[in-house]
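Holo prediction — H79.
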Amino acid sequence: MIEMNRMRILLVVLMILGVDGFAFSQDMDKMWGEQVMKLKAADAERGQLFEEGNYAMFIHWGLYSHIGNLYKGKSYYGIGEWIMNRNMANIPVDEYKLLVKEFDPVKFDANKIAKLAADAGMKYIVITAKHHDGFAMYHSKVSKFNIVDATPFGRDPMKELAKACKSHGLGLGFYYSHNQDWTFPGGGNGPKKNADGRNVDFKYYYENKCRAQVEEITTQYGPSAIVWFDTPGRIPEEDVKELVGIVRKNQPKALVSGRAGYGLGDYQTLGDMEVPHENVEGIWETVDTTNDSWAYAWYDNYWKTPKEILHRLVSTVGRGGTYMLNIGPQGDGTVPELAAHILRKAGEWIRRYPQVVYGTDASPWKHALPWGDVTVKDNSLFLCIFDMPKNGRLHLPGLKTKVKFAYLLGVKKKTRLEVQTQGNWTKIQLPPSISEKIVPVVQLELDGQPEVDPCWGIDPSVETTILAQFADVTGAKQEKKSWMEKFGEWKHVVRVWKWEKGGKASWQVDVLKPGYYNVDLTYNGKDRIVWGVDIEGGEHIQNQQNSSHNYQRFPIGWINFPKPGRYKVSVSCIEGDLAEASLKALHFTFVD
Ligand code: H79
């Protein structure tokens, strides 16, 4: 056990990123910080928060929330906390600072927010104590640019939230932008001169604001669960060491986010809004949004449904991580009603099946399955069904451990479901009517620790999507790409592109039911493209389709798997702009 605790998990994150739409010189890696994680014996206790928690509330709330992406009568589309930026409203520092006089979030109710998080099934809250705009959302003694001293509101919402979290049994952590400060002289991307017109450097900001504020947020509000540093950029390593030291001294049980920089944090945060497709080792989290922006944006009504939230939560936990979901309260302090509604609805499901989410581990398949995803606790598998197979048959490819019994959760009378094996497959027959309307869950009790043969199963009962990320590739490039859909709104993909003649992306698949399957491809590219799909030693199909600059799905045709069992399937790009053609996924649907 001690040995286990001492086990060091070393994880180097390599992100190969392309950024479209904005010209900027800094690498995204540097923006989010290169994160080399070491989980040491001493960190094990801190790691408990993630081991058991798995679901948390993120809150972006600040002076920018008062603007809500509507400035001087004009709407700006993108992440609201970046409204000052030159690619958004381009607000001069002095003008932004004047907004404090209008910021009066009188409807802020810490208890209501903490209750919402608890009702949602979240275990702790991380809130912006200071974002890149430099405005402190708590009572700071070192800078008057804070909510207590500078606004008509005059209250310390963090004090109120600390109390409310305590009474609801929630942990509380603070987001603190340690490198960037756009309004304090010397801060990252901030003014270069101080009030006397003297040139100042980062040290000036660090010594006069940053260090003291980290001291404040770790001493003024009782026990902290996390200090969430972000975008380390060019902050010197010794400063990060000192900041982490301050957290350790004042809050020995608090986790420090990986975005502190220089591998000095306790865990890894993936790219913003990134739910990974493949299991990730170590302790890590995904940070995500309920709509599109982090901070409140008046027009932002593109909400994730409760089912989508649960899907992203279960997928993150199923990949081995913790899910932190953001809400952006408005300038008056209230949480948008739809955000609250979605969170509560998802929370009702979690309360029905808490054992599926809390304290569970990653799926032995290491990726999603066609009908949903899996979490694990000891010898139990929790099969969460997001796409119900029409015939009620749940198929598990490659499960090597014997199933003792299977039953549907959430029903009064625990009834054993029929389980059969066929080749490498385990087949479970679901009951004809299921009362769970959002995400039904089947629990499998196994004879031992789950073991899985990592082959891709082609499911005859529900569409099977296989990602290019999992292909073996020759004669093409397999690369990760992250891009912004709107300003600051990230999307991530691993694609296969830069095809050469004869290049192939291949997967080992296992077919349960022989016959014809329709094959679609999701790709982007330029103009018309001819794609081929091959079964090694079997059929070859090809077809020309159009393409678009964003990822879209096009049909290629039917392909025949003559008997059950293993095949090697390959995709190749045959004609068209081979260098630009970028494959994301292939999809198989059984043709009845
Ligand atoms: O707090 C949220 C974001 O404001 C913050 N992290 C999450 C949790 C964040 N700050 N910076 N970044 C994320 C990444 C920076 C991206 C950039 Fe850009 C790309 C900086 C310049 C180009 C997007 C476009 C943001 C500004 C311009």
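READOUT: The radius of gyration is 25 Å.
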